[in-house]
Structures are given as structure tokens and as C-alpha cells.
Amino acid sequence: MKRIASALWLSLAVSASAASPETAAQAVNAFGLDLHRQMPKTGNVCLSPYSIQSALGMTYLGASGVTQEEMARVLRFPADKAMLGESFAALNAALVEAQANSEKQVAQSKKYGGPSEALKLHVANRLFGQKGYEFRETFLSGVKSHFGAPMELMNFIKDHAAATREINGWVEKQTQKRIRDLIPENGLSADTRLVLVNALYFKAAWQSEFSAHATAPKPFHVNGAKSTVEVPTMGKQEHMRYLNSRGFQAVTLPYAGNDLHFLLIVPDDIGGVSDVEKKLTAETLLACAKAEHREVILHLPKFKITPPTVPLSEVLQKMGMTTAFDKPQGSADFDAMAPKKPDDYLCISEVFHKTFLELDEKGTEAAAATAVAMAYAGAPAPRQKPIELNADRPFLFAIQHATTGACLFFGRVNDPR
Which of 257, 212, 16, 254 is CA-nearest to residue 120? Predict the structure, then answer.
């Protein structure tokens, strides 16, 4: 008999530490690209590597033995759990600082015609644990210290349906109602013992808005086809970070405050998005964030992505994280989370992930939540000729922290309609 401990992670503000955020940022991007390559090649895709890594990062603090080794390899985590936790705390502190910087800039620039709305970035973590279950105090204190995640006691045994509603309600509240019903109706059971939750909400105005008058229908090669359809396309000309790499061009569009930006990656070939996906690396994503400024004439379609909840257990197992899901039976080792006994031990039953993203002339709104279910089983460039970049074909995108390159969101648009 298996008990399911579902976990969703919501990042809360934590105090800055001397640790470097780069370790967490590198893991977020490297794993995010690995996971993105496992997604369907058709349709639009939107993931939040930051949300997923935050939820699984909390789970990792409770892993031991082979399970810890597998998770480290697949998730691109260091063996040192404390270092990982401190790095995530530092990255979260950098994001909190980005919001504060945005608020200051907006307050100062309103009278000069600058951004009118400050960045809104809310990350929250929480553990929902079974009353009376024997969780290790070192695990609980580590998750609270590094991820700002307190424990809320639940009674999955008595009423797991009510627990599901309560957790989903918490996520909905944290994401401004953009993420609803993260955990499906039968996602938890009377065997659930822990749910680690991450919820992320992001809304930001462009540092320099697109003019609505410049938006017009323009051709787009849906799914990389030679034929085109007309889609509402925004346009602007300004200095942007620009990278011309092998097989693609990339630009970054800063949000109010300049600490976060929208990264656009456009393949050179109309049907070349898959080739670009195959060769992208975490180092390339960082290079895009650090590229030199050029004057660019940009044409970018408006789009909105609202995918359903995605279960990630099969994908994670395919990537090599098997014992965490108790495959083979008896192999899961989360002894650092709760004592492992022959007839009572924890394993991950499912990882639920859901996102929302909308982009228009004013800026971007996005949200994500990730739930891990545990079960017991047993400076400006010199004046040059402007570069014209037309995103008239399937493209990749990210919402990225400018300093570390960490991708809060990453995805693909095959059809912006």
C-alpha cells in the first residue's frame, strides 16, 4: 500500500545570503532545456523551470542514497544539499531585489514617461503534511530556511478531497487566480502524506511599451509551414541586447526595472525551431542575457498560452529519475525526509505542473505552479544600421533574470493564435 505525499512549491522571500545564485540558475536552465526537449514537438509549450526546480529542490533535501544521486544527475543539482539550498535562497533574494528596484524606478520615472507599472513577482513555498506523520526536523528546518516554506498540517487520511481543494485554493490565491485546479480531482489519496508546493506569479510592463498603433496583421508560418496566416503582430525599433548565433538570432526586451527581460529566439530557417532546441545550452541562454546592444527593428506576434496541468512523472523517469518514484519497488530513499521503514516509506507519486502566459503591447503576465506528490510504498553600442528581426515563424522564448540568466519561464510558440 502506498501513501502519497504530494508536494507543490511556492517561493517566498527569504533573506539574502552570502551564497551565489549561479548554482541554482545553472541548474534551472540546464534541466529546463533537458525537460523542454522531452515535450511534444507540435503545439505551443510553456514550462517554468524555476517553479519545477524549486519544488524538486525542496524534495531533494529529503533524498538519500541512490535516489539522491539520481535526482542530482537528472536535475543538475550539486551533491551538497546545503549549497543548493543556499543558492536557491540567494536567487530568490535576487528576484525580490528585482521587484524592489522596479518599484523604485517606476516611482522616479512616471513623470518622465517611463513605465507606469512596477514588476509584480510573487513566489511562495509551502509544505502540506499529514498530521502526526514522522517528518524529520532537519528536513523541515532546511526547507523552511532555504526555501521559506512553512509546514501546514492536513488530514489526507480522513478527507483527501478536501485537502486537494484547500491546496488548489492556496495556489489559486498565490497566482492571482491564473492557476486553477493544479492538482486533478484524483491526484491525491488517503495515502498522501506530504505535498510540497511552489507557486509563481509574474506581471511586468515593458521598460518601453509597444505602440498599439503599430500592431497590425502580419503573416506567420504556423508550425513552420511554407504557407502563412495573418496574426496580430507588434512592432518597435530600439536598442536591445542582440545575439546572432549559429542557426538563430536572439534579442532581449527588458521589463520595468531592467532586472528581468523577455528573451526571444528566432530560428534562421522557417522550420528550424527543432534544430535550435536540440543545440541550446545553459551557457547559450546566459550569453543571450549578456549580449551586446544593437538597434533592432522587431516584429513580434502577440500570444497567450494556457496549457492544462502536465503530469511529469513519466518524463522524469525517462530522464533517469526512477528510484524517486519507487521503481523498482522498495528502491525509493527519502530517509532524510522521514524515517524509511520496511512497510512505511515515502516516494514521489506524481509531479503536477501548470502554467499561464500572456504577452501584449503593455507587457507580460505569467504564472506557474508545481506539485510533487510523495507516496510511501511499502552599455549602448555605436550607431550602426538597424537589424530587422521578424518573428514570423515558430520561435522560442523565456522570461529571464538578467544577471544570472535563470529562466523563470521557457517555451515555444508554434501558433500564436
Answer: 257
- Tell me if 333 sits within 8 A of 340, measured CB to CB: yes
Q: Percentage of the chain surpassing pLDDT 70?
A: 92
Vertex 81 angle, CA 78 and 87, to 5°: 75
Domain extent, residue 77, equals: 3-205+305-376
Q: CA 14, CA 17: separation in Å to the nearest integer?
A: 9
Q: Which three cell numbers stand for residue 410?
A: 521557457
How far, in Å, CA of 336 to CA of 329, rounded?
A: 19
State whether the Cα torsion 253-256-257-259 is positive or negative: negative
Q: Indicate if 216 and 264 belong to the same structural domain.
A: yes
- What pLDDT digit, counting tens, does each position of 300-340 carry? 999 999 999 999 999 999 999 999 999 999 999 999 999 99
Cell of 270: 522557417
State if pTM tops 0.70.
yes
The SS3 call for residue 192 is: coil
Q: Please report, as a single letter, which amino acid is at residue 153.
A: L
* Matching residue, cell 498522501: 192
**Residue 98 contacts by C-beta under 8 Å, 6 or more apart in sequence?**
119, 121, 257, 259, 260, 401
Q: Which residues contact 256 (CB under 8 A, 6 or more apart)?
A: 102, 105, 106, 114, 115, 117, 118, 119, 204, 205, 206, 207, 363
Residues 260 and 324 in one domain: no
